[in-house]
Design brief:
By secondary structure, this protein is of the alpha/beta class. The protein starts with 42 loop residues before the first strand and ends in a 15-residue tail after the last helix. It has helices at 54-65, 84-90, 109-123, 133-145, 166-178, 191-199, 226-232, 253-266, 281-290, 304-307, 325-332, 345-348, 363-375, 377-394, 397-412; strands at 43-49, 72-78, 94-97, 127-131, 150-155, 185-188, 208-210, 240-244, 271-275, 295-299, 313-316, 337-340, 356-358.
Amino acid sequence: MMRSRTFVPGAGHQGGTAVGWPASLPQVGPPTALPAPPTLPRIKILHVITRFEAGAGGNTLLSAAGMDPERYEVWIAGVPGGDLWDRARADGVRTVEVRGFRHTLTPADLLVLVRLVRLVRRERFTVVHTHSGKGGFLGRLAARLCRTPVVVHTFHGLSFHPYQSRTRRTLYRCLERATRRFTHRFLAVAPRVAQQAVEERLAPPGLIQVVPSAVALGHIPERFDPLARRVLGTPRGTALIGTVGRIDTQKAPLDFIRMAAAIRAEHPGTAFAMIGDGPLEDEVRRLAAQLDVEVTFTGHRQDAAWLVAGLDVFVITSLYEGLGRALTEALAAGRPVVATAVNGVPDLVEHGATGLLVAPADPEGAARAVCWLLDHPREAAELGRQGRRRVRAGFAPQAMCAAVDACYRDLLGLPQQTQAPVTPPSP
């Protein structure tokens, strides 16, 4: 009677564990004495995303660039423009900036669908992995038309929210539900995002799993950085409250200014900074002038994740937010945070443990929370330390990529990777 053995990963990319799969045998002789092995075919992955920028774009780039290049050939397709495309190419990811792709739904999306179908048919992808509302709809529809074997969709946040018009919410909800049956597995960046997707019937129960949205931790200081503070132009003795993000409706930047005015009434010497740019910047500047609040506007900064280490308190006033990439980076730098309790944010910011939560569209409430942190510096520092421990323990890119890899393996019937492949000794 033949006994089954547990598979032990060997050299190359045959990693995993499967009962009944024979164990790898030791190599005969030193690797330098062996003939070169043939090049094995790689699994082709196509990520389709609408905006390849900000939080969802950064998350997608990390998960694409962090996959095993010996096992996977990874592509990204999406709306042209943005600084992440060059970074993706530098990281070895194949890119397609789809001509005619826009951020919002238009009749031209029929041509975008045709271009996506041509791309999927030509390259014969094994997995199509989609992101965001519009990218998820067009990408999954193209995959269905091309009979792609595996389709995965990530919820970075729901594509519709209460601050949209009713017509727009209904349309995006219908598009998400229409492509639900084309999808073999769903991922979500936070537990509450997963719960909302199930409650809205965008994902069937049992087919969605949480993969926390990682951030690149290597270039983020673990504590306050005096050099970042000097770049922001505020003296060390002055309390500096800041935020990072696109200055648009989602981030509610006008609420940040109203909050700043309320804080100045209690702490007149406080300074404020907004790191980022966007369509509402002129309106925000006008409101700041009307309320006599001096704010440093840095514009878009590639080093925003480092600059946040120069803040005394980090604030997000977002009306909706899947998880908040800038928020995660601020916590990684040990900054005390105040954040609106929307979508997946409460999964990351535990009130009184890793930061303070406030209601959205409540600048007065945000001001009270910030003033509490300024009045209790010892407790604020401890909140920052606990937030840093949480992020640095569970939001590393390696953990996210391992979870995505495990998802692909499960759907393709491949054994799971239980340990790193054996590295041949140096000659």
